[in-house]
Design a protein that fits this description.
Length: 505
Amino acid sequence: MEPCGSITVNERGIVDGNPLVIHPHPNFRIFLTVNPHYGEVSRAMRNRGVEIFMLQPYWLDNRSGYNDEDVEFKDVRRFLVLSGIPIAQLVDSMARAHTYAKNKGSELNEHITYLELSHWVHLFLQLLKNGCCPIWSLKISWEHIYLSSLGVEGENIINFAKTKYLSVTNLAGYDDLTACPLALPGGWPLPLSVRDYVYYSKEASIKQNCMYLEFLGTQIASHQYQVARKRHSTTCLQTPNDHVRVYLMDLMTLHELMFPKASNVMISDERECKFDSELTNKMLYFAANWTIEQATESDFKFYLLRFKWFSSQMQPFCQFFSNFLIVIEQMIKHPIWEYISCRDKLDADLKLMPLLSLDLVDLAPSNSKIKYLCNAISCFDPLRLTYQQRNIESQHNFDEEVSIESQHSFGEKTSCFIRLLKSLYFLQDEILNKFVISTPKLIEDQSFDYKLQLYSNLIEDHALFWHYFISSEFDHMMISWHCLVKDARKFIDMCPEAVDNFLVS
């Protein structure tokens, strides 16, 4: 314990005329943990080591905007999800029961920790696997674990929480026949384990980064599946292998598959599940962009494979992943992406750093190459928005807006609009190419920030113009059109031919 210290083992006696002296190994470490119930380590011993005190994650002052109870509840909820507990409502009920027991137990000078929570989850799952009733399993496992920790004095706490949070009345809304998605981010159906991180570290990390994105996709797919199964039978919606994919599963579908004879007796439930598809799609784009930004040079292809596999699991009820893959595959063929991928010229080991990370400014030696690479990374978002908007427009069927009677008269107008879009695409391609393949490259020019902002305004007004066109808000469409023309004219010196072609069309 002392610097350059040693221990003389007098009890051994004399060995070869000398006492036995033991010197510590250079990597020798000793860890002392303290249970406050049984006292503490002596001050003399504590002075010979490094003392570490771990604060709770919710220690922050409430005035800073953090609520310790809310943070603690989220931590407990996350623990339950990662333990494999499905259904958000069940996770919430168990989390509230645990936090209640923890808070009340502290008044009795009893410390309820995650150890009790893990034991509760383990016993609950074991009872379910043995075929016991879910509600009974939940209650009996709760009583067995927490009563042994709180003792006889905590019996009232146990009974109150069982009635308040774990009763049949409280869980009545979670009937087996309700259309409630089972999937949770990082949890069911395939939670990660420590073994996965040890033996498949790269694959497990990729899966972890895709968890929330896949959860949002599951929500959309499950909702669309429920809409479709109201119109068709369940058998019509099964895969060629005659089974329903696990990511589309909900409680009602699971009940029908497990008890096919009882599925004919349906309990009418007129409640409609509220689902904001527009908001979920926005969250999907945000989560997908964040996920792809975590990819490194070595695992980027693994992310694409993960997206492709998950897209196959969502078909035909969620097209987002297939569309996003199309956008990414188009982007990686662009010269901007090629410029980002070429890191061999940098005097730094950046293999493990995400391709789209700007942290390399701090890690690599400061030079012009680093600055230019950061400029190329800054072009990623405008490039993504460009291909994303094109993908949206390519899926639009212009013929659906034209009736059979007026198809001849409106055919010319439709073709003119398509020519307009093509000329706009050509202008955007010319501008984007100027950033990396012109001489000199715009990313190496002092006016880069200004030119990039101009292009960002162009693509934003393009998306706004399309939105008003689709929604038939022609007054707003004309305003956005004038803004789009104004944005295009600012590139007359850079791409005169492409700008003239767009203005003429």
